[in-house]
């Protein structure tokens, strides 16, 4: 770790106000954050009635997703969004090191709540193109080692590239990866360290032992079944914590902090596919005694400060979640006091720092400079040309060539692989979700990054067999994405998309809306948003005739969806006829490399394959 002192840019009141995230009160238990640190946050610890009060500072990040620098590899430009956010470990590091300088490194712990090695071309390159299993260094390891983390929990995306890659990453870190509920398939013993105890030695006081427990959402069992089936099981977060927290306390921990890669709202995206809760952090705080604070991850939202009362002890547990990609850094302040000979947390509070006014830490940016340059050369290499420009901006609510292209490549890949099999004569359909509104293929030269932008996740391609009726059932659930509207508009996209449903009480995310297409433009359908959920798919046809509900179709689908992500009907039990574990993004890149020319007329047409209607009449949507 660099020993250079980072300038204390937090020192000025103006900068402090800029750094603090302004968060409105958002429901029961969520505290508002002031424009600057509270008096309690800045006051020096002092004596209490039962002895000295000592302040411990815990700094946290989560869902970094391969972002080290403030750079958008898909746009080949500095990262920018409508809220003026900045991203990356390098900026978060400047905040972390400045707080350490302010309060004392000996009083500070730094942790992460998971999802570090997937999400950008930088991360993908060192998993697949120049893999760390072959000896290269993962840039996230180089960056996080420079920050000086004390521990990090595993996230579900840590498992995307398999256990060999994850173990290689683990070996490159100067701090432990924690996961108490990633357990051996047969023995039930943790396959990673469940916790670590850090001894905080402060002047004029006895050492304080701080236990850090790592937990991951059990959804790994669904989303990465191909990588973990038969190897690693994932007990529920609450269930495993009830076992592990007492053990951690028995091992001597005075304070227990959980790095929990699981949101706080108690919801799950997989329906009843697992007996556990996906987003269980608040339930964890409520039901498991002995926890003092939880760094929340996975949900990609920000929680400046929330208190949940434990039903067993009556004590308040502090929760905080910083925004993803390094946009925010959590600062938790825990005041400890000796009570009847035992250290106890007598007060806790938290706030978020905004990374957008922090400079990049040169120690971190320097550690990844060579890797960054190598990946820039890779993603900006020209691999083909396109006769037309194709944008995915409107793909959520109208048929676009961009989505047709994804479905086409998926379909032709599966079709070719079926040659010589019993399914070779079956018609092939394909599904894809419009999860990147910024994706665009330009007319003219096409680079790796432009193609990769069409498919920003590391999902692999699978082929399954469904009947015509099952295809219709699938589309019906996909159509839940749309809000019910009885008129034809005009509407804004926000007025018709992201509907609140029993499966998505916070609104259906774009990645849980699937568009289906057939090779040779053979599948057509309408989505009637005036109708109730379950009866919206009308005019479903294949090859110009109403679809045969008893006929069989091979459907190209991604591994996330096939394994239960989104809890779509029929897919988990459907026969699998293709599964070569190849990333869809790479398949698209390979197709362009091999074919050289993208011509939308080969996979898209002027007549939409699908459209939104209301009571049978076309709906108008204006962005």
Automatic annotation (TrEMBL):
Q: Name one GO cellular component term.
A: outer membrane-bounded periplasmic space
InterPro entries to which the protein is assigned, alphabetical: 5'-Nucleotdase_C (IPR008334), 5'-Nucleotdase_C_sf (IPR036907), 5_nucleotidase/apyrase (IPR006179), Calcineurin-like_PHP (IPR004843), CpdB_N (IPR041827), Metallo-depent_PP-like (IPR029052), TAT_signal (IPR006311)
MF annotations from Gene Ontology: hydrolase activity; metal ion binding; nucleotide binding
**Keyword Methyltransferase on entry:** no
Biological process GO terms, please? Answer: nucleotide catabolic process
Keywords in alphabetical order: Hydrolase, Metal-binding, Nucleotide-binding, Signal
Query: Is the Signal keyword given for this protein?
Result: yes
Q: What residues does the 5'-Nucleotidase C-terminal domain cover?
A: 382-572
What are the Calcineurin-like phosphoesterase domain coordinates in residue numbering?
Answer: 57-301
Q: Which family does it belong to?
A: Belongs to the 5'-nucleotidase family.
The record's listing under PANTHER family reads: 2',3'-CYCLIC-NUCLEOTIDE 2'-PHOSPHODIESTERASE_3'-NUCLEOTIDASE, 5'-NUCLEOTIDASE-RELATED
Q: What is this protein called?
A: 2',3'-cyclic-nucleotide 2'-phosphodiesterase/3'-nucleotidase
